[in-house]
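Quick start: what a row looks like.
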Amino acid sequence: MKKRFYQHIAFFLALSITTALAVSCDNAPGRSKSKNAIEVAHQFPNGNWAFEEEVVAFDFTISDTSRDYRVALSLKYDTAVAVLRTIPLSVTFQTPDGMQSVAASNFNLNRKENKDIRILDSGLAEATVTVFPKRSMKTPGTYHLTVYRRAEKADNYGFSELSAIVTPE
């Protein structure tokens, strides 16, 4: 009887530890897996991703060329104001020596379809999309990431911040 009691305690203790570790590890797409992640943000004035800002550029410096990197974009928005549910993007990645590559991607802002959307303490939502999942950066220096919003040719209210997140793998 005592042996069975201790087996139950050991089982619940192991389950508790596993649950605590799973909750504390945050590996959702776009969220930093490493304290070494580089995050560069662009704020949209008045919560408006204006037509004039359909192109947003980011610069970041890489010195460790021995690793691959994951390049993601994060968009913070107000679900009560933003009317777009899909934002098509073209993303250009340029190395310090001028080499370019282009990727097409989409922000899916539909919370029923995209389970990776987070609700932040501020009440805003955050959607993240990985644009370049495994990118080698062999040249130290400044890299350029240009995001072109291919959505409507109009102002888009409800969007507060677009960020580029570069995480070593």
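That is the whole record. The longest helix spans residues 2-24. Residues 10-33 have pLDDT under 50 and may be disordered.
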